[in-house]
Amino acid sequence: MAGNIRLEIVTPEKEVVNEDVQMVVAPGELGDFGVLIGHTSFMTSLRIGTLHYTDAKGQTRYVFVSAGFAEALPEKITVLAESAERRKDIDLSRAQSALERAQKRLDEKREDLDFVRAKAALERAMHRIKLAGTR
């Protein structure tokens, strides 16, 4: 089916993407999923990972997303993410510092450590570094 679908990616702080695109592939909690114009409606949770889409000109674009939800409708997909950054906006040195902090926190093995939170911070940093390194 030819045509574009509207992609909106928003966080509590800002709108990251709002444009017509040809296709979206996102990191769903149960696996990656793709959406084209005319897709059946659904809603799903997202995991930490990379969302990529083909813009209206045929260029592939990448966005880091940190969990959240996606709603696909026949003519629009909305992503509500805890945080999201276009690949070009990722601060690599900041991501590397976050990785080091998370690793240090996990290595300390303190009894009051929130392991789930520390592991999520580590995973976010690793995804950002990987995505930024593919520029």
Task: Give a description of the structure.
The chain is α+β, with helices and mostly antiparallel strands and 135 residues long. Helix content is 26%, strand content 43%. The protein has helices at 92-108, 115-132; strands spanning 5-10, 15-28, 31-35, 42-46, 49-55, 60-65, 68-73, 76-81, 84-86. Strands 1, 2, 3, 4, 5, 6, 7, 8 and 9 form a 9-stranded mixed sheet that branches. Strand 7 (68-73) and strand 8 form a beta hairpin. The two termini are 31 Å apart.
End-to-end Cα distance: 31 Å
Q: Assign the CATH superfamily of the largest domain.
A: F0F1 ATP synthase delta/epsilon subunit, N-terminal
- Count of structural domains: 2
> Beta-strand percentage?
35-45%
- What is the arithmetic mean of pLDDT? 91
The CATH architecture of the largest domain can be named as Sandwich
Q: Order of SSEs, N→C?
A: EEEEEEEEEHH
Overall 3D form: elongated
State Rg.
Answer: 16 Å
Oligomer: single chain
- Which structural class do the helices and strands define? alpha+beta
CATH class of the largest domain: Mainly Beta
Q: Work out the number of β strands.
A: 9
